[in-house]
């Protein structure tokens, strides 16, 4: 049984980032054409485009601030110019900021997290879901976080944004389910990426000791779940929040 995304186009926001680039590469290896969104890292986006084209898939890079309606609309127009339809939308981009206690966290950080988690997802839905509804097929995948279930000190802005995102996705799944469009979330733990490999920081024993599998996950393991949810193999899964963290957090019934 193979994951076959041939004939489909996937848009990944934040595709030039640590996790996004592996998602883009993985979906391309499954046969999808790729819309590579980036905010600032144009060189990495161009490098990723060349890599994807090198394996025989079509790719286009798009710069946009995904918290701005006009820029998301422009991104949609460029994306549709690739194949005429976007079948898979992966909301991966998020604003980075310094984590501090609630009493010290600037209000601007809460606003940025709400915009990059919730508003981004709303704008992507408004831009791409109407076509999916018409075709009665589509995949929306949001990248959440295990932090949404942990609620540890200093995580407040990040957690509030991601928990808002979670509520939006659950409602959206109910609203578009009858059109055979699925809406799901992948929640990574503290994941090993290229940055860790370059800096030799893959091992984090204080974190790993609390993980039932006693290790950190990898960027490829996150991308594998995204690919599964994007495929027909996951055609009857919607409204799910799927932790990919070796059991570090476990949703309850």
TrEMBL record:
Protein origin, superkingdom: Bacteria
Gene3D superfamilies per the UniProt record, alphabetical: NAD(P)-binding Rossmann-like Domain (3.40.50.720)
Record bears the keyword Transport: no
Keyword Chaperone: no
Record's keyword terms, sorted: Membrane, Oxidoreductase, Transmembrane, Transmembrane helix
Membrane-spanning ranges: 222-242
SUPFAM superfamilies, per the entry: NAD(P)-binding Rossmann-fold domains
Family from the record: Belongs to the short-chain dehydrogenases/reductases (SDR) family.
Protein name stated in the entry: SDR family oxidoreductase
Annotated organism of origin: Paenibacillus germinis
